[in-house]
Amino acid sequence: MPWAESLLFLLLLFSLPIPFSHSWSFDYPSPIANINSLWTNNNATIPYSATYPDGSTIRAILVRQNPTWYSPFFACGFICTAPCNDFLFAIFSVSVGDPSNPAFNTSSMPQIMWTANRSRPVKDNASLQFKDGNLILRDFDGSLVWSTNTSDSRVVGLNLAETGNMVLFDAMGKTVWESFEHPTDTLLLGQSLRQGKRLTSDSLATNWTQGQFYLTVLDNGLYAFIEADPPQLYYQRRFNITDAIVQPNMNISSDGAKNYTTYISFLKGSLSAFVSFNNTDINLFDISLPSPSSAQFMSLENDGHLRVYRWDGTSWKPQADVLHVDLDDCAYPTVCGDYGICSEGQCSCPSRNSGDEDQFFRQLDNRQPNMGCSLAIPLSCDLTQYQQLLPLPNVMYFNLGQNWTTDEYSCKEACLKACSCKAAFFKYNNVSNGSCYLMPKLFSLMNYQPEVVGYNLSAYIKVQMLPPPPRSKQLNPLVYHVGAPIIVAVICIIILIIRRIMKRKMDDDDPFKGLAGMPTRFSYKQLREATNNFSKKLGQGGFGPVYEGKLGNVKIAVKCLRDIGHGKEEFMAEVITIGSIHHINLVRLIGYCSDKFHRLLVYEHMTNGSLDKWIFRKNPRGTLSWATRYKIILDIAKGLAYLHEECRQKIAHLDIKPGNILLDDKFNAKISDFGLAKLIDRDESHVMTKIRGTRGYLAPEWLSSTITEKADIYSFGVVVLEIVSGRKNLDNNQPEASNNLINLLQEKIKVGQVLDILDNQNEEIQLHGEEIIEVIKLAVWCLQRDCSKRPAMSQVVKVLEGKIDTETSAGYDAASKDDINFDASSPLSPAPVSAR
Ligand SMILES: *[C@@H]1O[C@H](CO)[C@@H](O)[C@H](O)[C@H]1NC(C)=O
Ligand SMILES: *[C@@H]1O[C@H](CO)[C@@H](O)[C@H](O)[C@H]1NC(C)=O
Ligand SMILES: *[C@@H]1O[C@H](CO)[C@@H](O)[C@H](O)[C@H]1NC(C)=O
Ligand SMILES: *[C@@H]1O[C@H](CO)[C@@H](O)[C@H](O)[C@H]1NC(C)=O
Ligand SMILES: *[C@@H]1O[C@H](CO)[C@@H](O)[C@H](O)[C@H]1NC(C)=O
Ligand SMILES: *[C@@H]1O[C@H](CO)[C@@H](O)[C@H](O)[C@H]1NC(C)=O
Ligand SMILES: *[C@@H]1O[C@H](CO)[C@@H](O)[C@H](O)[C@H]1NC(C)=O
Ligand SMILES: *[C@@H]1O[C@H](CO)[C@@H](O)[C@H](O)[C@H]1NC(C)=O
Ligand SMILES: *[C@@H]1O[C@H](CO)[C@@H](O)[C@H](O)[C@H]1NC(C)=O
Ligand SMILES: *[C@@H]1O[C@H](CO)[C@@H](O)[C@H](O)[C@H]1NC(C)=O
Ligand SMILES: *[C@@H]1O[C@H](CO)[C@@H](O)[C@H](O)[C@H]1NC(C)=O
Ligand SMILES: *[C@@H]1O[C@H](CO)[C@@H](O)[C@H](O)[C@H]1NC(C)=O
């Protein structure tokens, strides 16, 4: 077909870059490719490659030079981000040097504008084939990853246009397929999003797989959703179609009015909505944007924002937030994570009374409140009868989708009945009626002022409680004990029944009874069943064995206390005291059992078990990073600071050691067994006749003087050293000269080789030398023989948070004067010491 070839030649001429004064000496690949081309993803086949300082690599197949060298070039080809295991076939922008030094300038990163199939990355030696009118991407093993699906004999070439559009064209130069019609998360200047198409965010800035946000154009508006079942709407801008079509005085039949399509276009200075009707495009509205002084792109990002970026000569800089006109920052679904409440950009967890140390929700990450919150007890469809709705004042939701008219009571009932309902919102229309909204999935909530928005919304979040103790079992023995006189018995029974009914009634009136911090009372039988007859032992604590159990879907840990031969009432009183102490870094006491023979405590289950399993042995599930270790040290410090300084009664733990530090699924550390020493010694005349605690963690004053919470601070110092060094303080497996870690540290401090105590296997620890030295100094501060010189736990927390410095001189002086050593291996004289 000679005519086709000459046409193609003409076309090539026209699509060449506009000539400019400088000429490029670097040989960039052509922006156009002919049919029957094959590229393999390796350096040999694609010579135009560059590796960026972080290891990301591009292999460019087509490059479209830009007439102005200070604008980025567009290229299509393979791209990977460090560590470069996976490539995508993509269109991306690349920065180039000035004409005197033309080459890819790797000091600014490439920016991906379009990807072929981001949910399916490919490897080295993947292939891109342009054949039979089709552009086909296959992985190295030949598996089909993506195709334009254009088996069209008319296709003669592939062109990467100056706009960033990749086009398959025919001999007439007409477009057969274009990347602009298949947007991913980005719109380039001049690009449109047509009715039914979506922009879908990436899941993470570093991960290209499809994320949860999408922006779409429907026949009646522009909408943004977050993926859920069903998807939840967080932005909408309706089209006023009829109005637009009628205005140009068209004669529309009722059918004709429905025959239109809509789209939005990213134009210079605006994001504009259009309707195409009877071959005419009519503008519906414009969202004005900053005018481009250079290149721009618009991207739906993984926080749900639609942002415009501009090229500032060296990199892309955010320039505008498109939906911002209509959307407050707090109205984005993930601004404060799931269940988080956004108030003027600040995130918090739901609670009944503001400032309450809350027992229903906890922050996923104390240092990042915007990560959101989780329910303290996860919702379980098996225990719907123990679910309640927690009312939240002045809270509303970004999307109130489907609703129906009813009264507030029925609305709440409907939510309690539906297992899928996570929250209910009710908006009054008049005194008795209103709209009821049930939410199967709850993203971020937002605070509002009823006076400002002009309406009142009742918000209820569903929370889970554990089964209450059986009431009948407590009543029966009482009834039996009443004895012979039947009449008395009958009267008693009647009274009891009446009281029970009254009590039930009162219980019903207060939906949070049993939740306000009070641990639940269980029967022994209940706990035996929950633990499957105490079959799965989790560990052996200082006070007795611990078993795994399950209440409904909720995992628990049940501790069987031994050596408690007294005071059921006192035991309960004490348990309630312990049970009412709530802190994110203390393991929560959920309930207890106390009968004639048994004393059991029910704790929340901690997925990752105790700390010793992670620091002393090579855990098959991996070692902890330094960042995690640091966080664990801080968590322990916060928990202890709370026990020592923030509780109504000061609580000394007296057995701080890695075995008593538990880790949840996110490696948040929590102290367990607090208050037990006190509990157990309550009746022993307030004097400890034997040393409690664990060898290796005992403070020197155990031998001589009064025991205070300062003993915990010493033990904390030991634990910190163990976390840092990855070995036990007293370790008989070590050579004798180094089997006492504190002695060893002391030696190393004297010779200035502190980091010698570290577990050398761990490279990451070697990388954070300075921070580690600071933490060791902190430990030394805590390990001083004179307990009055040890810091308070609140000071320790401040040091770890970087708010104050360690009194380093104090610590190191002490070390050099042999003041930190306590030879725990020396015989312990059983001198009675006071416990208070
Ligand atoms: C491919 O080329 C890039 C840049 O030229 C280089 O950094 C990389 O090491 C090469 N890869 C291989 C496998 O040769
Ligand atoms: C690459 O870009 C940086 C700015 O991003 C600039 O400082 C540098 O001079 C450029 N290098 C070349 C070779 O043009
Ligand atoms: C890619 O293919 C070349 C040539 O067939 C081969 O030498 C090379 O080992 C392959 N690379 C990978 C990573 O498979
Ligand atoms: C992307 O890859 C996945 C997995 O191979 C496949 O299911 C999907 O159809 C592909 N998408 C496109 C647009 O080719
Ligand atoms: C091509 O067709 C396949 C199979 O029908 C489909 O999965 C894929 O999404 C299509 N690709 C594009 C780019 O439309
Ligand atoms: C990207 O995210 C997906 C889904 O969240 C995950 O399966 C995948 O492993 C992630 N990929 C990388 C490289 O992190
Ligand atoms: C449509 O636009 C007209 C005027 O432009 C306006 O009067 C009307 O209220 C609009 N309708 C809607 C539903 O916004
Ligand atoms: C509009 O269409 C109706 C019938 O569909 C016709 O009667 C009327 O004359 C038309 N008006 C104009 C202005 O064309
Ligand atoms: C709708 O438009 C299409 C093409 O624009 C046309 O072929 C079709 O007849 C129209 N349908 C109606 C009901 O007007
Ligand atoms: C469509 O436009 C043509 C002229 O462009 C006009 O004659 C025709 O009446 C229009 N049809 C409708 C349904 O508006
Ligand atoms: C309530 O739902 C109806 C349709 O079910 C809808 O038209 C209305 O806009 C909704 N109300 C609100 C405030 O979302
Ligand atoms: C409240 O509004 C509903 C309709 O929305 C109506 O049926 C009902 O009678 C109203 N009640 C009062 C007390 O006005």
Question: How are strands sequenced across the largest beta sheet?
Answer: 37-41-42-40-39-38
Number of domains: 5
Helix content: 10-25%
Query: Which shape, going by the Cα principal axes?
Result: globular
Indicate the radius of gyration in whole angstroms.
35 Å
CATH architecture of the largest domain: Orthogonal Bundle
Please tally the β strands and state the result.
46
- Any ligands, ions or cofactors bound here, and which? 2-acetamido-2-deoxy-beta-D-glucopyranose
Unreliable stretches: 1-25, 472-480, 503-516, 680-689, 821-836
Under CATH, the topology of the largest domain is which?
Answer: Transferase(Phosphotransferase), domain 1
How many separate helices? 17
Largest sheet: 6 strands, mixed
CATH class of the largest domain: Mainly Alpha
CATH superfamily label of the largest domain: Transferase(Phosphotransferase) domain 1
Provide structural commentary.
This protein is of the alpha+beta class. The chain has 5 domains: 182 residues, Agglutinin, subunit A (Orthogonal Prism); 113 residues, no CATH class; 124 residues, no CATH class; 124 residues, Phosphorylase Kinase, domain 1 (2-Layer Sandwich); 208 residues, Transferase(Phosphotransferase) domain 1 (Transferase(Phosphotransferase), domain 1), CATH 1.10.510. The strands form 12 sheets. Strands 37-41-42-40-39-38 form a 6-stranded mixed beta sheet, with helices on both faces. A 5-stranded antiparallel beta sheet has the order 3-4-5-6-7, with no helix packed on it. A hairpin with a 2-residue loop joins strand 39 and strand 40. Helix 10 runs antiparallel to helix 16. The chain is globular. The protein starts with a helix and ends with a strand. The N terminus and C terminus are likely disordered. One 2-acetamido-2-deoxy-beta-D-glucopyranose binds next to loops. Belongs to the protein kinase superfamily. Ser/Thr protein kinase family. It comes from Oryza nivara (Indian wild rice). One of its GO terms (molecular function) is protein serine/threonine kinase activity.
